[in-house]
Write a structure and sequence with these properties.
Shape: extended
Helix content: 25-40%
Largest sheet: none
Distance between the termini: 50 Å
Radius of gyration: 17 Å
């Protein structure tokens, strides 16, 4: 199976919608608990990577938001 947006669809925070989508398109819904921050840190410390979208944390900054630190170097 290709790992593309057409082959793998991601539904966040709505198990019923994921199952409904899978039923409509003849696919399979896989429902997973989110990773804990400690798990992500452990994988990173081992030099590995987690699958895409498994670290989809929120809330996200708005597109175009500019951040500036006030620290003086």
């Amino acid at each position: 199976m290709q790992d593309s947006d057409q082959a793998v669809r991601i539904v966040h925070h709505d198990a019923q919608a994921a199952a409904g989508l899978a039923a409509r398109i003849g696919g399979t819904a896989v429902l997973l608990k989110p990773l804990a921050v400690e798990d992500v840190l452990a994988v990173a410390a081992a030099g590995e990577r987690v699958p895409r979208k498994s670290t989809s944390f929120g809330p996200k900054p708005r597109t175009g938001l500019v951040l500036r630190t006030f620290a003086i170097d």
